[in-house]
């Protein structure tokens, strides 16, 4: 891929990559959830696919990939204060329903960011769920990430859920925008509120179901739910440090500024 692709090219490249790995490519679902009284708006690529993870419905294919329109409200208070938060965004995702799991999801995500997008390995960092030794082994032994670049985080950062339904521990890929974008505080690392480490991809190992009473039960089959922020990948690829500077958004921003 060329060194400064458009956001449209990144979206297409992602979907083509997962089509080549036998994923069925589906168009984005509506922002308004269908038959899901637990959500007002779709805030993640997996939200419309919940019944496929729980086994309530049979997916048209065990592997799916989408670019889902999202509106995420829990972090809406940060919009305008950071370079990486937006109200509306597009989320790229590959999903497995009882098919591949952790190892394959990690291998493909790394292949995509380092070989297809050719993001600099020097700038990439990994987070894993605190007790997830299996992910640690895959990232360090199979992929070859230096141990000091694999950061363990807790429930708040690395356990993913959206209301009742399928959920699980996750592992994330971060892109370092450089010390000049950081807060400079001692201990600043992945998960810090500042703009230095940009989370570009979240790999969720979907293995539990959050029940309505708050308890966790095991899903019958494990699954994979990944989400890569399209506009954030574009930031990294286009060498800018704010979502508002990428090719897709900056013309809108400039237009309103002119008005
Ligand atoms: N569900 C996870 C997220 O939205 C990964 O797709 O971050």
Description:
It is a single chain. The protein is of the alpha+beta class and 259 residues long. 25% of the residues lie in helices and 29% in strands. The protein is built from seven helices and nine strands. It has helices at residues 7-19, 50-54, 102-116, 133-143, 155-158, 230-238, 250-258, and strands at residues 24-26, 63-71, 88-97, 124-129, 150-153, 159-160, 165-176, 197-210, 216-229. Strands 1, 2, 3, 4, 5, 6, 7, 8 and 9 form a nine-stranded mixed beta sheet that branches. Strand 6 (159-160) and strand 7 form a beta hairpin. The longest helix is centred in the middle third of the chain and has 15 residues, at 102-116. The relative contact order is 0.17. The mean pLDDT is 96. Bound molecules: serine. Serine is lined by residues 44-46, 93, 160, 202, 204, 225-227.
Q: Radius of gyration in whole Å, from Cα? A: 18 Å
- Strand content is 25-35%
Flag low-confidence runs.
none
Bound molecules: serine
Structure, briefly:
The protein has 259 residues and is α+β, with helices and mostly antiparallel strands.
Question: Which labels suit this protein?
Answer:
7 helices; globular; alpha+beta
Provide the fold topology:
Elements: H1 7-19, E1 24-26, H2 50-54, E2 63-71, E3 88-97, H3 102-116, E4 124-129, H4 133-143, E5 150-153, H5 155-158, E6 159-160, E7 165-176, E8 197-210, E9 216-229, H6 230-238, H7 250-258
Parallel strand pairs: 1-2, 4-5
Antiparallel strand pairs: 2-3, 3-9, 4-7, 6-7, 7-8, 8-9
Helix pairs in contact: 3-4
The structure holds serine.
Serine (SER) is lined by residues 44-46, 93, 160, 202, 204, 225-227.
